[in-house]
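[step 3/7] fold_predict: job queued, chain A
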Amino acid sequence: MRPEILVLVPIYAPTLAALEREYAVHRLWAAHDPDALVKEVSGRVRAVVTTGSSGIESRLFEALPRLEIIGCFGTPHGAVDLALAKRRGVAVTNTPDSITGDVADLAMGLLVAVMRRIVEADRFVRAGQWLSGLLAPGSGLGGKTCGIIGLGAIGREIAKRAEAFGMSVCYHGPRRKEGVAYAYLPALEDLARESDCLVVACRSTPETRNLVNARILDALGPDGYLVNIARGPIVDEQALVAALKDRRIAGAALDVFWDEPRVPAELVAMEQVVLAPHIGSTTREVREERGRKLLANLRAHFAGRPLPSPLA
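[step 4/7] structure written:
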């Protein structure tokens, strides 16, 4: 008999199809009554498949007594209780990959889109408004300053792309980076004041929660743009809404939000805001790589071989 696995949330369709060819798959997210499904299959499920961001709730973990392995499509950052997994003797795997370039590409795409008003222009043409007049001009990138919050791997790739567009780069972080020629500003308010666009690329931690607040947005100013491809809670969302409403900043491009997938109606209604559904790593290449690694981990486990990418 094929091992039974519980898939908690939708994943890349070709990977899900491959799972269904090899295992008896139960789709939790599609169940009319998820609790009833868990109760029905709990004594048979040997593996759970989830995503790095969704993880698995401890309540569900405890409800699966025969669980042997949790396969994550992506890497869980605190979304899986590794200590509980260790106590239960449950293996946890991830799919280590490089999303740095893809996230940096999206950051630059969002920056171009909001400064050059590309999304507004698309709506303008589709609505037939071009027949009646011209779209107001956007802002060019050449000669402007791109301030980056967090010059880690992704931040550095964003900096390279910004330079290729003729922008100068400066950055803020907890400390100056060795061997980096970009201007370092130890005070975030100073970085915002020097920047024409501010790109959030740092980690989400208790220290960075609401890091970009009303004071920082005011320093960015009425001609400045904000791009966030990091995590929603780094930006004070209500302060951002207020700054955009009052035209205290020129626009924003956001891939992440406080309460995903729910996006504040105020942001949705604003013409000067570009919105994306957390797609920084959503490329076919990354999805295919993650799918291959997820399948490899499950196959190794059920064949009694060492796991290619274990977390616990």
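[step 5/7] annotate
The chain has a mean pLDDT of 96.
Residues 284-302 form the longest helix (19 residues).
exit 0
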